[in-house]
Design brief:
The structure is a single chain. By secondary structure, the protein is α/β, with parallel strands linked by helices. The protein folds into 2 domains: 5-288, 3-Layer(aba) Sandwich (Rossmann fold), CATH 3.40.50; 291-491, N-(1-d-carboxylethyl)-l-norvaline Dehydrogenase, domain 2 (Orthogonal Bundle), CATH 1.10.1040.10. It contains 21 helices and 13 strands. The strands form 4 sheets. A 5-stranded parallel beta sheet has the order 6-3-2-7-8. Strands 5-4-11 form a 3-stranded mixed beta sheet, sandwiched between helices. It has a 3-stranded mixed beta sheet with strand order 9-12-13, with helices on one face. The chain is globular, with a radius of gyration of 23 Å. GO terms for molecular function: mannitol 2-dehydrogenase activity. It is an enzyme of class 1 (oxidoreductase).
Length: 492
């Protein structure tokens, strides 16, 4: 398309007619939500549900104020503010591409070392929900015990300097203190990250951090604030040149478009101390069984992503859909899902584990979604401990097979060595990359060196039913290659 329309409030009427745009008056929206972490997933998922309500004339007092505590997000803030916080969402359906512009976000706070603007905004009683997408590894959890990591330097800083915190959680506590002292009541803290029991984990982090410096405030937060558990699901690739080109192909000059699959799911515990939008009118599900939904999704979809991505990185398979087209990787994925993961997953209304495995296989194979193995493999230290190892422990407890899960850990260890089988380098892809790479190199000759990372594996290193197949698979991956190991597992 030759002429591009810059994405702005003032130009919405000039966009091509095939592009859906907000029909509500954005100038009359008022904020009700602060969302910390304005990545692609939030804009394609939670913001979309709110946009749908606004399109129906609802929730106009629940607009989003964006926020971040990371200086690295400053360029994205600039991009979004320059286009009035509008986002083009591009749905990638195998049958075709469609675009819509969503507009429930009306501002983006300054990113500051002391988080003063963020604290002030959250202290405003008009804000009734503070939501977060800060990645699975962002909640200061001890990966072995699952408890609060009070020794982390960030937590120690925020406990010592509660008025100038460096983390989102310290900022939330500072704002809650102001609200308590003003008598305006608490807000709901809503995690939208892929953590089982994410609301309970958010409560643990906020209350435990508050308790380090102000036990009375911690008690007030624990007794009065709400932290609902949620399950979120939509495959949302990172934005790069291809995604920018897709927006331009729609006639839109958007500096931060988002592509996504033609599937969304949001299951929410209905526990909001200061009210909430009626997200169910836009397709979300309110349920007191969120943990069952999230266990299915985290154990089958999120864990499945790791099964594919680590193997894909080693074998230079660029995308998740390419992994699903690779016979050895796809066969490995299917067998682990059906034989080693599904036995530890309960059905949810309308969906059995077997049917869910078929659904995610179809979604992963969508060639219109260019979801890179590198993106999916990012932060394996959080994703393996959060998604795969709990299932592995269940298998060891119940006596179900764990050979494929042991192979998955061996593939992660091989990936973290930092080279692919074709000799190309795997760039650092984990917050703990240096330590992981050191352990991975040592494990080539001594597999126990990898399992000695007890911050991830705990007593699994001492469990022969896991440690022995892990060592055998890692040796085979190094000696014969990943395809040989994957094929041997599939053939049994």
């Amino acid at each position: 398309m030759d002429e591009l329309t810059p994405l702005r409030d003032a130009t919405l009427a000039d966009l091509p007619g095939v592009v859906s745009v907000p029909t509500y008056d954005r100038a009359n929206l008022t904020p009700g939500i602060v969302h910390i972490g304005l990545g692609n997933f939030h804009r394609a998922h939670q913001a979309w549900y709110l946009h749908r309500l606004m399109q129906d004339g609802l929730a106009h007092d629940w607009a989003i104020i964006g926020a971040s505590v990371r200086k690295a997000d400053a360029p994205q803030r600039d991009r979004l503010l320059a286009q009035d916080c509008l986002t083009t969402l591009i749905e990638l359906d195998p049958s075709g591409v469609s675009a819509e512009v969503v507009g429930p976000m009306i501002g983006y706070l300054p990113i500051e070392d002391d988080n003063a603007a963020l604290i002030a905004q959250m202290a405003n009683p008009a804000i009734r929900i503070v939501a977060l997408t800060v990645t699975e590894g962002g909640y200061y959890i001890d990966p072995v015990t699952g408890g609060f990591d009070a020794a982390h330097s960030d937590m120690q800083h925020d406990a010592a300097y509660p008025d100038t915190p460096r983390t989102a959680f310290g900022a939330m506590i500072a704002a809650l203190r102001l609200r308590r002292d003003a008598g305006t009541g608490p807000f709901t803290g809503q995690s939208c990250d892929n953590l089982q029991g994410n609301g309970a984990i958010l409560r643990q982090t906020v209350v435990s951090l508050a308790r380090l410096g102000d036990p009375a405030l911690a008690d007030w937060i624990d007794e009065n604030a709400s932290f609902p558990n949620t399950m979120v699901d939509c495959i949302v690739p990172a934005t790069g040149p291809a995604e920018l080109a897709l927006a331009r192909a729609q006639g839109i000059d958007d500096a931060a478009p988002v592509t996504h699959e033609n599937f969304r799911q949001w299951v929410i515990e209905d526990d909001f101390c200061a009210g909430r939008p009626d997200w169910d009118r836009a397709g979300a599900t309110f349920s007191d069984q969120v943990h069952v939904y999230e266990a299915m999704k985290i154990r089958m979809l999120n864990a499945g992503h790791q099964l594919l991505a680590n193997a894909g990185e080693i074998l230079s398979v660029p995308t998740i859909s390419d992994c699903m087209a690779h016979p050895a990787i796809a066969g490995f994925f299917a067998r682990v899902e059906h034989e080693e993961i599904a036995p530890h997953v309960h059905a949810v209304p309308g969906m059995t584990p077997v049917n869910y495995a078929a659904l995610i296989s179809e979604r992963f194979a969508n060639t219109a979604i260019v979801d890179t193995t590198r993106r999916v493999a990012f932060d394996g230290s959080s994703r393996h401990t959060g998604f795969l190892l709990p299932v592995l422990r269940d298998g060891l407890t119940t006596g179900t097979p764990v050979e494929g899960l042991a192979l998955a850990e061996a593939l992660w260890a091989r990936m973290c060595e930092g080279t692919r089988e074709d000799g190309t380098e795997i760039a650092p892809n984990d917050p703990h990359w240096t330590a992981l790479q050191t352990a991975a190199k040592a494990a080539r000759d001594d597999p126990a060196a990898w399992l000695a990372q007890r911050q991830f594996y705990g007593d699994l290193a001492d469990t022969p039913a896991f440690a022995q197949p892990f060592g055998r698979w890692l040796g085979m991956v190094w000696q014969d290659g990943a395809v040989a190991a994957l094929t041997a597992y599939v053939k049994g």
